[in-house]
Design brief:
With 292 residues, the protein is α/β, with parallel strands linked by helices. It has 11 helices and 11 strands. The chain is globular.
Length: 292
């Protein structure tokens, strides 16, 4: 049976059972809580912390591969740089909700040497890659809509990059999981994001006001900053197709149809990158008064 990686061994200090919220310990082939709920360690190195109810399957392998090609191209480097800048020095634990392959978390870890991180994502193809993304990054298959499987007050920073917020339950979970003064870093697209492809292909449109919504999403939190990242890139047709198929449009469009539509456009294709990076901080006094 596979043995836990060093990153997962360390992560067991903060990870908890998603069913009963008790601490986890490493056992042969995975992890177990005192109530004897057992969770498997995959041979690829990720831990599966799925609850008993049916959970989302997350992004497909094709979506994950498209995202990796986009990130390797440098198209999203400016976004990653803004995320890194939003993570404070001195943080000990970071959790990336819906963190996919761990690309953003790994960039943060490279810049913050004392930090450890956990990626939570429902997509098995994504967490397989996250498990080998960085030596201080633990990968966990988990549907965060059912809760964040970490101990109360154990996390210093939560990332949410292009990932759903989870509504009121998600806010409650953030309050529970974050340490005093903990920070939330949220990345949301602006209406101008990839608007050239949206117009040419009739894609899902990004509504206005997502940054303002994110800034107000946690009542009582301090809105530290909103950084707008804009960049114009020149994309090949293949990269433009990846930009479309790495996200939610992939659930509504076939890649062949997207490639056929893009074939009518001259190369390179101008594409706008436009996102907001929102930083929120929960006051220490609020954390001290919360109840589990």
């Amino acid at each position: 049976m596979p043995a836990p990686t060093a990153a997962l061994d360390a992560a067991l200090d903060v990870l908890v059972c998603p069913l009963c919220r008790q601490a986890l310990e490493a056992v042969d082939g995975g992890a177990r809580c005192a109530a004897r709920h057992h969770f498997d360690l995959a041979r690829q190195g990720y831990l599966s912390l799925r609850g008993g109810a049916a959970t989302a399957s997350g992004d497909t392998a094709a979506m994950v591969e498209a995202r990796e090609r986009v990130q390797a191209s440098g198209a999203h480097d400016a976004i990653a740089e803004a995320v890194v800048a939003a993570v404070p020095e001195g943080a000990h634990w970071l959790v990336d909700l819906g963190g996919g392959t761990g690309w953003h978390a790994s960039r943060v870890l490279e810049a913050r040497q004392g930090l450890r991180a956990i990626v939570l994502d429902a997509s098995v193809p994504a967490v397989r890659r996250a498990a080998r993304a960085h030596e201080r990054l633990a990968a966990v298959a988990n549907d965060v809509r059912a809760g964040i499987p970490v101990a109360d007050g154990s996390v210093d920073v939560v990332l949410r990059v292009f990932a759903p917020g989870g509504g009121e339950q998600g806010v409650s979970e953030l309050r529970r999981a974050l340490a005093p003064g903990g920070r939330v870093v949220v990345v949301v697209p602006e209406p101008q994001h990839q608007h050239e492809l949206v117009a040419a292909l009739g894609l899902l449109q990004v509504p206005a006001g997502k940054a303002e919504e994110a800034a107000a999403s946690i009542p009582g939190a301090v809105h530290r900053a909103t950084t707008t990242v804009t960049r114009a890139i020149e994309a090949s047709r293949a990269l433009a197709a990846d930009l479309v198929m790495m996200g939610p449009n992939a659930f509504h469009r076939e890649r062949g149809d997207v490639e056929a539509a893009l074939s009518a456009l001259p190369e390179p294709i101008a594409v706008s990158i436009a996102v907001s990076v929102v930083e929120l901080e929960l006051p220490a006094v609020e954390q001290g008064s919360r109840t589990p």
